[in-house]
UniProtKB/TrEMBL annotation:
Keywords of the record: Cell inner membrane, Cell membrane, Ion transport, Membrane, Metal-binding, Potassium, Potassium transport, Transmembrane, Transmembrane helix, Transport
Family, as annotated: Belongs to the TrkH potassium transport family.
The name this protein goes by in its record: Trk system potassium uptake protein
Domain of life: Bacteria
Binding site for K(+): T111, T112, I220, G221, T318, A319, N435, L436
GO CC aspect terms: plasma membrane
Length: 483
């Protein structure tokens, strides 16, 4: 294991991460809210620590194997999220415990969107901005991780596209070098954020709110600088803009790259995952709308459709924005929406969950087994589009699903052991493992009432969900640590 090379890389990451403390400090100066000092101190601490780690190991530049890659990926999220908690720890108002500070930081960087803060409306502007910014940075990290790094390590969903998706995804990375891939992804991600912020401004948000919500929309994070989330604006226009950009961000960013580079728009029309994604989305909206109308939940059909649209899209893409208390909706709708978050977005997107491609393959494999029961001697294959997939790919998807289910059960049982009721434990586990945010029961609004031990379990769930389970699970294997 090339430990000193890994330490050198981590030192550089921490030093670079220190720069992210500067924009909130600038926001504090602009709005004169007096909250700039924690960010200045965090900047200094991150910079000094990063350089102190990097300098003694600066000459270690050995080539890394897949084993070191797994460790770096896990440390990337855990170390940066830990340093991201510094401003929360240094704040005078609101005063946050160590557990709460880490929970808020991990929730932001993993784009989960679960919060322990109450009274967000009254926070200093710098703090409001910082919460949104860490989600935006986490969203970009997810894209680079999913599209450029995890396929090289042999995990994630992108390798399923090697032979199926036209253009740059065919070789599992869009340009020959990871650095070039990351650069192009940054351009797309940054451009979408600008367009989203402008759209929010056009429909009535001020520029500060527009930028903050664009950050969490493109990252599919769900943080808002208001306790009422998008419900604060009570605007159909805001909801529609949010839905459109959530759909865009929930699609495979490699498809966006193919379109932006001018190669072809055909990737959108011929991608089987995209088609499945929109079938699911439209079905959820129609079901929610029908039930709300049937129960006369809203006085106007237009309002009912607006609420059904924004809530079903927000929850199913794992954004977690709320415009109303969906947890109080009639009959099965709250549970259905929580279950929809298990599907999440497409592979190579900022969405959480199992990913649409895996759910599609699970369905196709299940269908094949039924066909085999009917015709035992027939030979069936699992096809994605027109191409038959190797059994190894299908086995990997089943393995991922099994590991996902195992982690879910372990964390949920752990939460119940801390004294949490069954419904809250189920929804909190689903909301954090799927990087959704809001749940049901005691965690419908905030996680402030969850015990400290429960919060640490949920932080672990966030990491498992964000790192595609296996990237973190592999570290628990004794084989991994053998040289």
């Amino acid at each position: 294991m090339q430990y000193r090379t890994i330490i050198r890389i981590l030192g550089l990451l921490v030093a670079l991460f220190s720069v992210t403390m500067i924009p909130p400090a600038i926001v504090s100066i602009i709005y004169e809210d007096g909250s700039g000092l924690p960010f200045l101190l965090a900047f200094i601490l991150c910079l000094i620590t990063g350089l102190a780690i990097w300098y003694p190991n600066r000459s270690f530049r050995n080539d890394l194997r897949a084993k070191e890659g797994f460790l770096i990926v896990v440390l990337f999220w855990t170390v940066l999220a830990s340093f991201g908690a510094l401003p929360f720890l240094l704040l005078e108002q609101p005063q946050m415990s160590t557990t709460d500070a880490f929970f808020e930081s991990f929730s932001g960087l993993t784009t989960t969107g679960a919060t322990v803060i109450e009274g967000i409306d009254y926070l200093p502007k710098a703090i409001q901005y910082y919460r949104q910014q860490i989600q935006w940075l986490g969203g970009m990290g997810i894209i680079v991780l999913a599209v450029a790094i995890l396929p090289i390590l042999g995990v994630g969903g992108m390798q399923l596209y090697r032979a199926e998706t036209p253009g740059p995804v065919k070789d599992s990375k869009m340009t020959p070098r990871i650095a070039d891939t990351a650069k192009h992804l940054w351009y797309i991600y940054f451009s979408l954020t600008i367009v989203c912020a402008t759209a929010f401004w056009v429909v009535g948000m001020n520029w500060f709110d527009a930028i903050c919500h664009a950050f969490s929309t493109i990252a599919i994070g769900g943080f808002s600088n208001y306790d009422a989330s998008l419900g604060h604006f009570n605007s159909v226009g805001v909801n529609v803009v949010c839905v459109i950009f959530l759909w865009i961000a929930a699609l495979n960013f490699a498809l966006h790259y193919a379109a932006a580079s001018g190669r072809s728009l055909k990737g959108y029309f011929h991608d089987p995952e995209l088609k499945t994604f929109f079938i699911i989305q439209i079905s959820l909206v129609l079901i929610c709308f029908s039930v709300l109308i049937q129960f006369n939940w809203f006085t106007d059909a237009g309002i009912a459709f607006d609420q059904a649209l924004i809530q079903s899209v927000s929850i199913s893409t794992t954004a977690g924005f709320t415009t109303t208390e969906f947890s109080n909706w009639p009959v099965f709708l709250p549970i259905m929406l929580i279950f929809s978050s298990f599907i999440g977005g497409c592979a190579g997107s900022t969405g959480g969950g199992l990913k649409v491609i895996r759910v599609l393959l699970l369905y196709l494999q299940g269908k094949r087994e039924v066909d085999r029961l009917i015709h035992p001697k027939a030979i069936y294959s699992v096809k994605l589009g027109e191409r038959a997939l190797p059994d190894r790919v299908v086995e990997a998807v089943w393995g991922f699903f099994s590991a996902y289910a195992m982690i879910f059960v372990i964390i949920m049982v752990g939460l119940i052991a801390t004294g949490m009721d069954d419904v809250t434990a189920f929804s909190a586990t689903a909301a954090t493992l799927n990087n959704l945010g809001p749940g049901l029961g005691e965690v419908a609004a905030t996680y402030a009432e969850v015990s400290d031990s429960g919060k640490w379990l949920l932080i672990l769930a966030m990491l498992f969900g964000r790192l595609e389970v296996f990237s973190l699970l592999v570290l628990f294997s004794p084989t991994f640590w053998r040289s």
